[in-house]
Amino acid sequence: MSYRSSAIASVDPDTSDATAIAHRLDFADHASEVPTHIHRKGQLILASYGAVTCTAAQNVWIVPPNCGIWIPGGVPHSARATANARVDYLFVESGASSLPDHCCALEITPMIRTMIDRLAAEPKDYLPDSHAARLARVMLDELAEMPRQGLNLPVSEHTKIRAIADALTARPSDRSTVADWAQRVAMSERSLARLMVQETGLTFGRWRQQLHLVVALRELASGTSVQRVAAMLGYESVNAFITMFRKAVGSTPSRYLPSVNGREHFS
Questions:
Q1: In 44-68, which positions are buried (b, 16+ CB within 10 angstroms) versus exposed (e)?
Q2: What is the pLDDT of residues 104-157, one digit of tens each?
Q3: What residues contact 148, with CB distance under 8 A and at least 6 apart?
Q4: What range(s) does the HTH araC/xylS-type domain occupy (predicted)?
Q5: Exposed, middle or buried: residue 196 (CB in 10 Å: 0-12, 13-18, 19+)?
Q6: How many Cα atoms within 13 Å fall on the side-chain side of residue 28?
Q7: Handedness of CA 64, 152, 216, 169 (dihedral sign)
Q8: Is the domain 156-264 a CATH 3.30.565.10 member?
Q9: Which of 5-9, 35-39, 221-225 tops mean pLDDT?
Q10: Average of pLDDT values for 162-172?
Q11: I want to staple 202 with a disulfide (CB 3.0 to 4.6 A). Which of 32, 207, 222, 254 is the partner?
């Protein structure tokens, strides 16, 4: 098996003083795991193909092909990419934009993606009065106007919530109730329900649905069929899964992720 280097080794954004720089990565050439790291510049992570899950600010974020995850400078983060992932990184100097001061998922328009691709072709040391600098300023203005998307799963370091999260991540088809989980972690049902809201901000049912959404987006973006994803998540029918997905993101899987590596999904 050939050794694949970490994506961190491919670029150090803090060596550039430019307002924004872009960098493209094909994870066929890099290890899928990107260990926890930190840099001065803020970072926008976009996937052209496949998907990336990113852990930052006590949340797990999913990066499907039509969205990006914004991580402000100074925030420790790690990531894991699917085998088919092709990713664009946009690094933004602190104070150079009106992007939020907290992690969030942003909708990405084709125009913004095209501008990021264009910036990736520019030298990283472009001059302040250059075409690249003007492109970067317009792109950052557009990014600051983009709608937010709910593509995050709150996580907790509490041992009992973490045990449930690890178990459901390993086996997302598990349909055990709050009462079942309370018995497993030696708590009362009421205490566990209260603890879940306290630690994640969500009820158990809402938190599990968000976990299913994150898993579904990751698997669909990596090329897994809708039927297989529905079975993986324990849905009794494909239609039940599609209904959940449509309520969560506003469209069916086939419309949200129209193609992955040239293969059409279907609803």
A1: bbbbebbbbbbbbbebbbbbbbbbb
A2: 999 899 999 999 999 999 998 899 999 999 999 999 999 999 998 888 999 898
A3: 104, 105, 106, 107
A4: 162-259
A5: buried
A6: 6
A7: positive
A8: no
A9: 35-39
A10: 92
A11: 207
Q: What are phi and psi of 93, to 5 degrees?
A: -65, 140
- Report pTM: 0.83
The CATH architecture that domain 7-149 belongs to is: Sandwich (2.60)
Residues 6+ apart with CB under 8 A from 202: 154, 196, 210
Mean pLDDT of 221-248: 93
Instruction: Please state the separation of Cα 265 from the chain's center in Å.
Output: 20
Contacts of 135 (CB under 8 A, 6+ apart): 115, 118, 119, 122
Residues 6+ apart with CB under 8 A from 145: none
